[in-house]
TrEMBL record:
Native source organism of the sequence: Salmo trutta (Brown trout)
Record protein name field: Ciliary associated calcium binding coiled-coil 1
Composition bias type Basic and acidic residues, residue spans: 11-29
Domain of life, per lineage: Eukaryota
Biased composition (Polar residues): 1-10
Length: 300
């Protein structure tokens, strides 16, 4: 084999090794510093210039949450990711750092939602991932986060998710019963075609006027006759009531009235005497209680 062939083989092997090293570094970087796959760094740059309301609207489209106003699960997801993104922007993180924070939020939540991972296992996986961000692939490249930033992320996840771990487990793992807001009832309605119409609706008009309305005509005739005679129905009733009252009072004489007044006076005097006696008894008891100490002091 010539020297040129050997040299070409060495260069080919070197290129292959370089490609393998680059691929392994990329795989290691992807595992140690994962990025959120739902949005790119360019989209994150666009979101950085928006308000929190506009960011929420964009996340509705990104996450596909159409029923967040009526579904508790979708509302919790939207609040979880929007709050995490806004916190990362307030910490002045770069696009790569923000994407890692969002991927970390996604990973921890998927462990609850899909894997039903216990609290301890999920916390250990989070600790391994956040500690991997402190390691650098080469001395020339800085790590993704420093110690202070890693501690800030840990504190945020502790307050936002790990303190409410049981609530997230209940929200995503417990079946929700559908509440019945209404109830159907079947009510049988009588068909008018199968029954005879009521008498007043089924009879002829002439028969109704001749047999059903004479009573009303008779009453109207009496009223008109009284008006023609100069008598008003209301005045006659009042006069009759006055006459009845006058006859009731005429049944009593002067002696009956005196007897009633005497009984009322005696009853009032008895009540006053009892009240006066009770007041005297109370005063006597109060005076006696006051005099007892004076008697004891005088005896001494």
């Amino acid at each position: 084999m010539s020297a040129k062939a050997k040299q070409s083989n060495k260069s080919a092997d070197k290129n292959t090794n370089d490609r393998n090293d680059a691929a392994s570094k990329e795989n290691y970087a992807e595992k140690s510093n994962p990025q959120w796959k739902l949005i790119s760094h360019e989209q994150i740059n666009t979101l950085l210039d928006l308000t929190v309301e506009q960011v929420q609207f964009q996340f509705e489209e990104i996450l596909g949450l159409k029923n967040y106003q009526t579904c508790v699960k979708e509302a919790a997801l939207l609040d979880y990711f929007v709050s995490g993104f806004w916190w990362a922007t307030e910490m002045n993180y770069s696009c790569q750092q923000i994407s890692f924070v969002m991927a970390l939020l996604q990973l921890v939540l998927d462990n609850i939602r899909e894997k039903q991972m216990p609290f301890g296992d999920n916390l250990n996986e989070f600790a391994k991932l956040i500690s991997g961000t402190r390691q650098s692939l080469s001395p020339e490249v800085d790590s993704l986060f420093d110690a202070e930033q890693a501690m800030a992320i840990t504190d945020y996840l502790k307050c936002s998710l790990f303190q409410n771990y049981r609530l997230y487990e209940f929200l995503f793992n417990q079946p929700r019963e559908e509440l019945l807001l209404g109830k159907k009832r079947t009510i049988e309605v009588i068909s008018s075609a199968d029954f005879v119409a009521p008498l007043e609706e089924g009879m002829n008009t002439e028969v109704y006027l001749h047999y059903m309305t004479p009573v009303e005509h008779h009453e109207e005739g009496q009223r008109t006759s009284q008006v023609e005679d100069g008598e008003v129905p209301g005045e006659t009733v009042l006069e009759q009531e006055k006459e009845n009252k006058a006859t009731e009072f005429e049944e009593y004489n002067v002696q009956d009235v005196k007897d009633v007044l005497d009984d009322l006076t005696k009853e009032m005097l008895r009540n006053l005497q009892a009240e006066f006696t009770e007041k005297l008894r109370v005063q006597e008891e109060s005076f006696s209680t006051r005099l007892e100490p004076l008697k004891h002091s005088a005896c001494k």
